[in-house]
Amino acid sequence: MMKSLFLSLLLVCVLFMNSFSEVQGKKWKGEGTTQNLESIVIGRCYDYIRIVNPAVGEKNCSEIWEAFKNAFINKDPCSILPKDYELFINLSLHTIPPNKSLFWENNQLLVNSFAGRGRRYMSLGDTLFGFCGDFLNWCGQANSTGLDYESCPTTEECENNAVESFWRMASITYAQHSSGVIHVLLNGSAVGGAYPEPGFFADYEIPNLQKDKISQIVIWVVDDIEGPDIDSCGSHTVKILENRLKTLGYDVTCTDNYKSVMFLLCLDYPDDSKCTLSSF
């Protein structure tokens, strides 16, 4: 009798542990949703339309948040598609000034500084739709209206996650609305090359540029001050990019270590040999 009871309890424990392991196995490898996400997104929206770029006019920031949230809430976090953000994009869309677009790969912080929050250039992160999502993380849960604050899927776990699909849609939109002289800032010290394939610029932005609205594409390849010179104009991956754009019929120019960007980098490395006046 005691042996039978012991076996029954053991079976219950095994079943419980298996069930617990399955639940634990559903946890993702990525960071969870940024705390206070709603307040941040709505706050950024008001900051943008009131302070950063009031020229965009009135926007309903509460509607923008609802559209953003409804793109991924109550859904399988690995089944979110770029088109799910269409309403959010439509509500937050505004004009990107001609000659101000600045595309990039592997140097986001540098681009943010160089663009000057839209004063010099308007990168994706300087648009309202990009500004709302910059440096944030988020995901929902299937059959739940709540956000997952513990973990979210990485792109390695599933490509159709909430954040990846958001930036794909934002990149497509940004490219479609860019015009005039297009600027591209690449990292010549990036491991694997300045122009990654696959990559957002290669896969979502170049295919969506509107050729009839673009007069020239200007590429800047800038090395990290203390980094190696891995890539440069006319060689390696940059040559692949130049050839691709020329084949598409664009007028393309390329400059290594563009002075204006180097001046900005040298603010943090004033004593480096690359930052002496004779280097410029």
Look at the structure and give the mean pLDDT: 91
The major β-sheet equals:
5 strands, parallel
For the secondary structure, the number of strands is 9
Q: SS-based structural class? A: alpha/beta
Report how far apart the termini are.
89 Å
Report strand %: 5-15%
- Coarse shape: globular
Please give a structural write-up.
The chain contains 10 helices and 9 strands. With 280 residues, it is α/β, with parallel strands linked by helices. The strands form 3 sheets. A 5-stranded parallel β-sheet has the order 3-2-7-8-9, with helices on both faces. The chain has a two-stranded antiparallel ribbon with strand order 1-6. Helix 2 packs across helix 3 (61-70) and helix 3 (61-70) runs antiparallel to helix 4 (86-92). The longest helix has 24 residues, at 2-25. The chain is globular.
Short description, anyone?
The chain has helices at residues 2-25, 37-52, 61-70, 86-92, 108-115, 128-133, 162-176, 200-205, 236-247, 259-266, and strands at residues 30-31, 101-105, 122-123, 140-141, 144-147, 151-152, 180-187, 214-222, 252-256. It is an alpha/beta fold.
Keyphrases for this structure?
280 residues, two-stranded antiparallel sheet
List the helices and strands and how they pair.
Elements: H1 2-25, E1 30-31, H2 37-52, H3 61-70, H4 86-92, E2 101-105, H5 108-115, E3 122-123, H6 128-133, E4 140-141, E5 144-147, E6 151-152, H7 162-176, E7 180-187, H8 200-205, E8 214-222, H9 236-247, E9 252-256, H10 259-266
Parallel strand pairs: 2-3, 2-7, 7-8, 8-9
Antiparallel strand pairs: 1-6, 4-5
